[in-house]
Design goal:
The complex is a heterodimer of chains A (446) and B (297).
Chain A (H helix, E strand, L loop, with lengths): L22 H33 L13 H6 L3 H32 L5 H9 L6 H11 L8 H13 L9 E2 L4 E4 L3 E4 L3 E2 L3 E7 L23 E7 L22 E6 L5 E5 L5 E4 L6 E6 L20 H25 L3 H9 L4 H29 L3 H6 L5 H4 L2 H9 L6 H29 L1
Helix pairs in contact in A: 1-13, 3-7, 3-9, 4-7, 5-7, 7-9, 8-9, 12-13
Chain B lengths: L5 H5 L2 H16 L1 H25 L13 H4 L7 H7 L2 H34 L5 H11 L5 H14 L5 H25 L3 H9 L4 H12 L1 H16 L3 H6 L6 H6 L5 H25 L1 H12 L2
Helix pairs in contact in B: 3-15, 5-15, 6-9, 6-12, 7-9, 9-12, 12-15, 12-16
The chains are: A alpha+beta (446), B mainly alpha (297).
């Protein structure tokens, strides 16, 4: 219990002691005020820290001394190396982004009158547990664009730029049509101007028949035009392939292109509710009629954010969502403490806002920025909850970080306390520079 | 900022030029306003998304996006919330969370204020050195304590109890709490303490009657912090509890079947974050002060 038996050091008197009391009496009083804290720090932090370090040199149940074996495993096992590598990515990406975003927000809100509303919105996630934040983003990042907000947003834009086709599947109903949905389906025999083309498709499930489809109708032929019909060549009971029968539906919205068989002329048309189409103004001759592959273009299917290759992004995104507010608030406080006259002087000298920001604001803020940055490094090294809730079970191995690996090794099934202790000690060693930095800063200030 | 004073408008042309430059600057800031509106809105969307998902009918929660509620308001239902409040596992988890949070907030504050008083105003050998130890403990990851405490709790027979979780949270709250309160207490005017001491007040009396009332703002900040910290904990409860499940652990155990349990996960998660949010909005000022005192100092 290092706290209870302190090393001898200089003692500073803050208030002259009341007369008449012996020093050890005053020490006793101080001891009484300190004792509960000393007990807690000793039993719950100092003892376990020492114990964990020692334990890291023993095997899984603590019966055998194994030297550096656990550490060797820490740096050779694939799982743990992945965790360390992922954590390194987190440390490289997240603190810098959080600090940068916080800085941008703080600077932009500085002279905005309604900044309180903005700051509240951005700061609010700080009150939410990282675990719940992970649940939120697990939901936001679902692959299905019908549920996942991110993919729904991307999908809305994507489908505007590249509209999905009227059909998502469909096969030729007879050998009259050749090709495939991905390359487009073409009638094997060219159709002369004034002729009628019949393009029968099968393999379209009832729920994928476009809305508004009616009984297919074979349009009458017309001079100087290729007319035709695209229909679902199937009715309850089957029907005869290649023949347009009663009970078979036209396929609306299908893009049909008509091209001169020898290269010249042509046009395109979209089928109506009865599946009929017509391309007018054609010179005499033969024409190739085809259903373009755009008809079969799939709608946006969603990006698999929570899949193995991208899973780190949602995790880091969620983390930044939570912590940006912290950075913003701390940096904004630092900003408001900056000497106004220096900034104004720079502006009066004709510096642009960007120059003021780059050459005056940022250098003056450096101490605050480094506090935010270092704080974030400490937290990011220990990131845990958000991984467990953002990453689904199937990709948690890909999202693994040190704290998660530690928990899984020691408690989540493996139950190897020796290796677990080594991972914990490794984590501890990583924060020691910050520990020393804190101590140095305190001693300088006092 | 940006608004010209009458004096400037009446002044020489050079100044008037500056005024117009300012008008331009205000106009030039319109994109900034738009950007901030957009970002502020984006920052709110995820939380709103969770809430609106939680009020979708349970049979459609997996097929409907929450945004469909705007076009089909009839989808809105409290059914999922009725379900979770009738679910004993969830309600008892919420109670467990509450007990852990109350204990884990009050206990560290009491213990840390006493210690902080000693560090700030009492004289004893090695005071600065011991305080440096406390500062050193600030960044010790609580992961360092999990394995030994797991064993110790089992040996003592207090594993999987609310008390053992409170004690753990208390210990790991102390370094920051002592640090924060000591800095605040040290700023209390010396004369107040001297006067009390000359009047013959005991240290305990000074602590209770002078320090604590004056230290209330810092204690309030700390209380908010601790409340949020313990309420939001997952790791400690997951490791040192089994049947003692706070709400985070209860939801965690449902996550494996995210799709089929979303009608429970969404409302339970929202309840679990609504309470800290209420605390946050009620005491936002203290929360921000605490963050600033803790990080910038």
């Amino acid at each position: 219990m290092a706290v209870a038996t302190p090393p001898a050091g200089p003692s500073a008197t803050t208030v002259p002691p009341p007369p008449g009391r012996r020093p050890w009496g005053r020490w006793l009083i101080a001891g009484a005020f300190l004792a509960p804290a000393a007990l807690f720090l000793g039993v719950w932090i100092i003892y376990p820290t020492i114990s964990t370090i020692i334990r890291s040199f023993y095997d899984r149940d603590g019966s055998k001394f194994v030297g550096w074996d656990n550490y060797r495993e820490l740096f050779t096992s694939d799982t743990l190396l992945t965790a360390i590598r992922n954590n390194a990515i987190w440390v490289a990406v997240v603190p810098i982004l959080v600090t940068a975003i916080g800085l941008v927000f703080a600077v932009l809100t500085e002279r905005v009158r309604w900044s309180v509303a903005f700051k509240t919105a951005v700061f609010m996630p700080m009150a939410i547990s990282l675990f719940a934040a992970g649940v939120i983003w697990h939901l936001m990042d679902q692959k299905d664009p019908d549920i996942g907000t991110i993919n729904a947003t991307i999908g809305a834009v994507y489908d505007k730029v590249r509209p999905p086709g009227a059909l998502s599947s469909g096969l030729p109903s007879s050998s009259a049509l050749t090709g495939s949905p991905s390359s487009g389906l073409t009638l094997a025999k060219p159709v002369p101007a004034g002729g009628v083309a019949t393009l029968g498709l099968t393999g379209i499930p009832p729920d994928q028949v476009p809305e508004g489809a009616r009984q297919a109708v074979r349009p009458p032929p017309r001079e100087g035009a290729v007319s035709g019909v695209v229909w679902r060549d199937f009715k309850p009971g089957g029907g005869t392939p290649g023949r347009l029968e009663k009970g078979e539906l036209g396929l609306p919205g299908v893009q049909v292109s008509v091209k001169g068989a020898n290269g010249g002329g042509g046009g395109s048309a979209t089928t109506g509710d009865d599946g009929a189409f017509r391309v007018d103004g054609l010179a005499p001759g033969d024409y190739r009629v085809s259903i373009s592959s755009a008809t079969f273009r799939e709608p946006f299917g969603g990006i698999d954010w929570l899949g193995p290759s991208l899973i780190k992004i949602p995790g880091m995104g969620a983390y930044i969502w939570v912590w940006a507010g912290f950075a913003m608030v701390v940096i904004a406080a630092g900003l408001s403490a900056l000497p106004r006259d220096v900034l104004e002087a720079a502006r009066t000298d004709g510096a642009s806002e960007w120059q003021v920001f780059r050459r005056v604001t940022v250098p003056l803020l450096a101490p605050v920025l480094s506090v935010v940055f270092i704080t974030m490094i400490i937290y990011v090294l220990k990131v845990f909850d958000i991984i467990l809730s953002v990453a689904p079970g199937s990709t948690q191995d890909d999202a693994n970080v040190i704290a998660v690996a530690l928990w899984r090794t020691a408690f989540g099934g493996v139950n190897d306390f020796g290796l677990g202790s080594a991972i914990a000690t490794f984590l501890f060693v990583l924060v020691i520079p910050v520990l020393l930095l804190n101590v140095r800063r305190f001693r300088r200030e006092n | 900022m940006g608004v010209a004073t009458p004096a400037e408008e009446l002044a020489v042309p050079v100044v008037r030029e500056r005024t117009s430059a300012r008008v331009l600057r205000v106009l030039g800031r319109t994109p900034v306003h738009l950007f901030l509106v957009l970002v502020g809105f984006l920052w709110l969307v995820p939380t709103v998304a969770l809430f609106l998902t939680s009020v979708l009918p349970s049979d459609q929660i997996n097929s409907q996006g929450w945004w469909n509620i705007f076009s089909k308001p009839s989808l809105f239902t409290w059914e999922n919330y009725r379900e979770i409040f009738n679910n004993d596992a969830i309600t008892s988890s919420l109670l467990t969370t509450l007990w852990i949070t109350i204990g884990g907030t009050i206990l560290p504050i009491v213990i840390a204020s006493a210690a902080a008083y000693a560090f700030a105003w009492l004289e004893f050998p090695g005071r600065d050195w011991i305080f440096i130890v406390v500062i050193g403990l600030l960044v010790v990851p609580l992961q360092m304590a999990l394995i030994p405490m797991f064993s110790l709790y089992n040996d003592l027979g207090i594993f999987d109890t609310v008390i053992s979780l409170i004690l753990f949270h208390t210990a790991f709250a102390l370094p920051f709490a002592i640090f924060l309160l000591r800095n605040f207490f040290a700023g209390i005017p010396k004369e107040l303490l001297e006067a009390a001491r000359i009047d013959g007040a005991s240290e305990l009396r000074i602590f209770l009657r002078v320090i604590l009332p004056l230290g209330l703002p810092a204690i309030a900040s700390l209380a908010i912090f601790q409340f949020l910290w313990t309420w939001n904990d997952l790791l400690v409860a997951l490791t040192l509890g089994r049947d003692t499940q706070p709400i985070t652990v209860a939801i965690f155990s449902q996550l494996r079947q995210f799709g089929s349990n979303l009608d429970l996960i969404a409302p339970a998660s929202f309840v679990s974050l609504a309470i800290p949010l209420v605390v946050f909005f009620a005491f936002q000022r203290y929360f921000v002060q605490g963050i600033l005192a803790g990080s910038v100092k």
